Amino acid sequence: MEIISPKMDFAFRELMEDDEIRRYFICDVLNMPVEQVKETRLGNSFLRRRHQKMKQGILDVKMFLHDGTRINLEMQLRRQKFWEKRSLYYLTKMYADILFMGEHFDRLRRCVAISILDFNLREDDRYHSVYRMRDEMGKDYSDLLELHIIELRKKLTGNSRLDDWIRLFNAETEEDLHMIKTKNAGVQRAKYVIQEMSLTEAMRDALESYRKRKMDRKSEDAYVYDQGKEAGEQIGMERGIEQGKQEVLLDLVQKGKLDVKTAAETCGITPKEFQKKMAEITEKV
């Protein structure tokens, strides 16, 4: 039986809402004993802006460890232009946003970005790469900035705890889940949650909505290919205007100046559809 893919934004968020899953996954990526992490907590997914024209930085999942470490965790399904620069922007902005004007530098804490990619970023065989600040001799300058890249499409070469998570994220059917034989309590819990999600009506509706969006986008792209540049510019303009309006409404909802029902009516959709569209915007930025 087909399952809700853990790669989908709403399913991925649902998994990370679970404290046990979240704690085990982070520890397995960072190669830390679970016993060392007393707690993890989720934070606001929106990075604050210092001025109105500054680009809004949006994270998929933002969390904190008990020692003050900040973690930006994202699932990225499509490769974006300037992806490397984008990833550095989010990591360094998360680090800089710790301090307010006039505060001491000793308040700065370790910041870790974990990007799970459903595409190949590098041509080598490594599917888990870790980047830190080092000199030319390989000696660490600081451990305060750390970037992890996990590439899901590459061939697995081992049976580590992280390998089990990659198999989980790539699962498409119940049989795929059953094939993951592991003693990892976090992965076992995640398998159960995915199976539960796949049975709920709300999640099945979300899956159908996701498929419809993909089909609509393919149809539009095919139309652009047939009609040429002018049609492409028109569709691009329509998409930009609509998304721009939705982003403004999202900002108002986030600031508590507008309720979801009113925002949905402004878009001419239901509150449920509005929330789905907001999740889409969050994923794309």
Q: Looking at the structure, what is the overall shape?
A: globular
Question: The biggest beta sheet, please?
Answer: 6 strands, mixed
Low-confidence stretches: 46-58, 237-241
Helix content: 40-55%
- Sequence of secondary-structure elements: HHEEEHEEEHHHHHHH
If you compute it from the alpha carbons, what radius of gyration comes out, rounded to the nearest whole angstrom? 20 Å
Q: How many DSSP E strands?
A: 6
Structural class: alpha/beta
Distance between the termini: 32 Å
Number of helices: 10
Mean pLDDT, as a whole number?
A: 79
User: What proportion strand?
Assistant: 5-15%
Instruction: Provide the spatial order of strands within the biggest beta sheet.
Output: 1-2-3-4-6-5
Structure summary:
This protein is of the alpha/beta class. It has ten helices and six strands; from the N terminus they run ααβββαβββααααααα.
